[in-house]
């Protein structure tokens, strides 16, 4: 890369001119491996101009793509504004400067461009230098009247006057390299800096640094957490602007001072949906720049609201998916598949407003679940969401989280992710309807057959076990209730269901209708909607039961298959 560095008059980062060709070039880096991305930047006709011309956000994404320890060549080409952005985002733990991370980034910058970095520390970065050294070193000063000055072996000196001991031994290499470079660059400034370290008031200095850092980051969408959390305040979709006369003029005026619009966060949204289709068809370059700027700010505000620090690439992509998902969700809800209407909505409203409206759709479901939970039998019985089985219990658990999440099973390592489509909202709402009607059914059944302790087993009590155990006892002419079956009785139940099947898969023809009829629950509200919901919920329960045991031979059936039937142990 160094062979391609050209002296083109660029200063510390005030040169801003991202040519359209460079924009396309930058977009193409996202899909590459870290090594290939770095090689591609190295092979650009003018790497210094390319790096200094991109936004600080895009430079940050590029660093994350390449990896911090492999980014020395990029850091060498970066402007001091880009350096400052990296330090602002990476070095703070809430309102405290995290010394270990700060030291690592200072070591990288020192290695990348020692002369320019030390010059920056003597000027704009002076507060950082004072605070970092105050927290990291002990300084002893040789008295000029002393002919012999003895310091311990843990001290080192550069000028024979100041003797320095690192507080943490693992920081010695970084600190010594930093101070030697400073002394070599300007001995008088080096000595003045060490003299001033003794007079530092650390709490006041850190507070002032934090305040200035927040002002800088606010321009990129990073707000104090207590302010950033407003991004999750729901907004009524009806309040979104749809007419030009309703829209303010800020969106065009503010672009004059916006600087370079970050490209990567918006450009790297994946998937084919209304949001991506609308953006891909935009012909208004000014609107597209505004959306790039706003989307980056939206992602940064969400990061602030989440309190995420020292983010890796996965964190950044997850936030990006969350932002894009709720934007697409509200566009679909308002515009269906009409890209012209969607473009108008994007033009007339801020992305933060659209995100709040989209998130509000999911939040409405959470509130619906909480209202239901307050008066339902299930909650009064002290049962856990797992009572409703893995899928429905997971759906309820996701909704009841601080921020409602969609239960996606094995799609995610945690089993949950943010909502991103109307069908996901609809299916979750349907599950709530099923839980409500089944809860009312269980309340009626337990009033008729009081629930005794089911005894220990391989699985926690579920509504499946209660329904199928009760039904099995009815079919076997046993005393009705929820008392667990013996293994012999459970096998007799299966033989009865499979009387018409000669081999697996066991279809149990005719018994689904008998199951549905057994729990028709005439005591419930008999409206068509209620009957339809109950039938839908019971049909799904039967299907789950059938899928679970259709290949399990009756003779080999044992208590480990008791997810759907209560069986006595032993």
* Strand runs, count: 7
Strand adjacency order, main sheet: 3-5-4
Give the termini separation.
72 Å
Radius of gyration: 32 Å
Number of helices: 27
Shape: elongated
Helix content: 55-70%
Low-pLDDT stretches: 1-17, 248-259, 454-459
Summarize the main sheet. Answer: 3 strands, antiparallel
Question: What's the overall average pLDDT, rounded?
Answer: 87
User: In percent terms, what proportion of residues is strand?
Assistant: under 5%
* Structural classification: mainly alpha
Write the layout of secondary structure elements.
Elements: H1 20-27, H2 34-42, H3 47-53, H4 56-66, H5 72-77, H6 80-90, E1 92-93, E2 96-97, H7 99-112, H8 114-122, H9 126-136, E3 137-141, E4 156-157, E5 162-166, H10 172-185, H11 187-197, H12 202-218, H13 225-228, H14 250-253, H15 264-267, H16 274-280, H17 285-306, H18 313-335, H19 339-348, H20 351-375, H21 377-380, H22 389-399, E6 406-407, E7 416-417, H23 422-448, H24 463-475, H25 487-497, H26 511-518, H27 528-549
Antiparallel strand pairs: 1-2, 3-5, 4-5, 6-7
Helix pairs in contact: 4-6, 7-8, 7-10, 8-10, 9-11, 9-12, 10-11, 16-19, 17-18, 18-19, 18-20, 20-23, 23-27
Structure description:
The radius of gyration is 32 Å and the shape is elongated. Among the domains are: 225-359, no CATH class; 377-570, no CATH class. β1 (92-93) and β2 form a beta hairpin. α7 crosses α8 (114-122) and α18 crosses α19 (339-348). A 3-stranded antiparallel β-sheet has the order 3-5-4. A two-stranded antiparallel ribbon has the order 1-2. By secondary structure, it is mainly alpha-helical. Mean pLDDT is 87; it is low at 1-17, 248-259 and 454-459. The longest helix is centred in the last third of the chain and has 27 residues, at 422-448. It is built from 27 helices and 7 strands.
